[in-house]
Amino acid sequence: MRLSIFANYLGSGDSNPEALGLYIVKSLNKYDILYSHMIEPRMKTLAEMAECPQSLVSIRKSFNNTFIVAGGYGREDGTKAVAENRADLVAYGRQFLANPDLPKRLELNAPLNKYNRNTFYISDPVVGYTDYPFLDETITA
Ligand SMILES: Cc1cc2nc3c(=O)[nH]c(=O)nc-3n(C[C@H](O)[C@H](O)[C@H](O)COP(=O)(O)O)c2cc1C
């Protein structure tokens, strides 16, 4: 179950997203749902990060199974979120799109390809989706 409870674009905003999130995860607990994947409140508008006082921590604490977070994470803060028990797992969106070998790059602390916003959501099946180079290609290029 993946939810963006704090999102407010396209009329999706809620007057009390934290209460909504708590209600949802408590409901999911009743069905022993395997994981809850939530987008950080800082991602209010589409793929843009903003400072924000809200957090997913109380919702994380109320969910019984695996809790996944996403939204603006990099190597350091992703590792920190798991180490501080704010999540079981961290999902990467744009970094994964731009780096087909992201786990390897994170493991090696290798440089990352920069994502190109202009090719997000375009209909071409290759450009912006499967044409970012692997690390080996970057090194030998
Ligand atoms: C090109 C593109 C397509 C996306 N498609 C979806 C989607 O179909 N469903 C969804 O829940 N999120 C989608 N997202 C949002 C990402 O899954 C993710 O939540 C968002 O990019 C924030 O995480 P990030 O900072 O790691 O990129 C998409 C993002 C991008 C850039």
Automatic annotation (TrEMBL):
SUPFAM superfamilies found in the cross-reference section: FMN-linked oxidoreductases (SSF51395)
Keyword Disulfide bond belongs to the record: no
Pfam family, one: Oxidored_FMN
Coiled coil: none
NADP among keywords: yes
Gene Ontology MF term list: FMN binding; oxidoreductase activity
The entry's keywords: Flavoprotein, FMN, NADP
Required co-factors: FMN
Domain annotation NADH:flavin oxidoreductase/NADH oxidase N-terminal: ranges: 31-112
Residues making up the signal peptide according to the UniProt record: none
Protein family per UniProt: Belongs to the NADH:flavin oxidoreductase/NADH oxidase family.
Entry protein name: NADH:flavin oxidoreductase/NADH oxidase N-terminal domain-containing protein
Organism placement in taxonomy: Eukaryota, Viridiplantae, Streptophyta, Embryophyta, Tracheophyta
